[in-house]
Amino acid sequence: MTVATTPTRAELLTRLARPEVRGLPAYNAGLSSEVVRQRYGVQHVARLASNENPFGPSPVVGLALAHLALSAGLYPDANCRALRAAIAARTGAQPEQVVVGNGSENVLEMLCQAFLEPGDRVVTLLPSFGLHEIYPRMMGAHVQMLPVTSALEFDVDAWVAALTQGPPPKLAMLSNPSNPVGCMLDAAAFGRIVQATPQETLLVIDEAYYEYALHSPGFPDALAELRAQNRPWIVLRTFSKAWGLAGLRVGYGIASDARLVQMLDRVRTPFNVNVAAQTAALAAWNDAAYMQQCVSKTVEQREWLDAQLRSLGVVIAPSATNFLFLNLQRPNGPVAEALLARGVVVKPWKEMGYESFIRVSIASVEDNALFLQAFAEAMRAPA
Ligand SMILES: Cc1ncc(COP(=O)(O)O)c(C=O)c1O
Predict the structure, then answer these.
(1) Which end of the chain is more exposed for a tag (fewer CB within 10 A), N or C?
(2) Which protein residue has the closest C-alpha to ligand 1 atom 12?
(3) Tens digits of per-residue pLDDT, 239-287?
């Protein structure tokens, strides 16, 4: 005789959720500094896991924010008019072509909500920025992930094949430079991928690390290349990295058409970018010289750390970003744990096939040195 059991609340909730949501992986946001301090009993936490700007935003941001408390009772501009105009003016776009998000992840989310239906095909990179996979899957899309080559570079031939064979993908999502690998497509390779993209495919070029990549010879002028095309596209950038505003959440997209932005407007929450975020982003944007100084210091430190690690025999992917992707050739978990015990947070990669890699953000001079020392110690322990 079978005994009927009443379902638990967790089971009831699982049944209520959309099938696409039930199987979604959680985004791996890493540990907060406070948790690391408490769990590992360390005083100083070196944050090398989130690709933040270790120097923080321009001092003018602080001045702009200081006066905000008085207007905190008012809704923000739902259309981010001042910020969109400023972005448009410097990037050669029309303000109507610019969309602003609560981080560029918000723009990625809007794109998936506006364009993807269950069963649609999305092409992206492996290993990937987690949300390039999670948001499409949330909408029921099938995500085809194209691995980097053994030299940890874009596999341009595989991209061309994925774009040209079979029905056109609804969306092609490409971070250039890539996160987490750091590799970049040069102008010729980028041009090949653009030419291979069917007109029916929305091409999403995620340039979260754009300001760093400008220091790498051969980095393509994606906007110029795309503007010459008769196809829909959007280029995403962020204030979270080079501009030092990760905590306030501002990212933006420059789209082929005002029509594309209008579609995103239909799905976004009306006041998606708060007053502090809009004010800070505009102030930071007006102090590009400060941002450039931060980027130059970071690129210099990246080259230093890269050389130090190579002298220890570590395999490192080429990087056009503010981080390095290291192949430890052993499981990454124990090494990341040993680094945490020394107050150093890095990102051990979890995607299948990449469990021997860690991603290390370039931090301050002191924290980079701390990482190097802690890493050398951690790697001396038997695997
Ligand atoms: C490739 C890429 N895209 C988008 C984002 C999201 O950035 P944010 O939402 O902070 O603008 C990140 C953040 O790490 C990223 O690496």
Answers:
(1) N
(2) 208
(3) 999 999 999 999 999 999 999 999 999 999 999 999 999 999 999 999 9
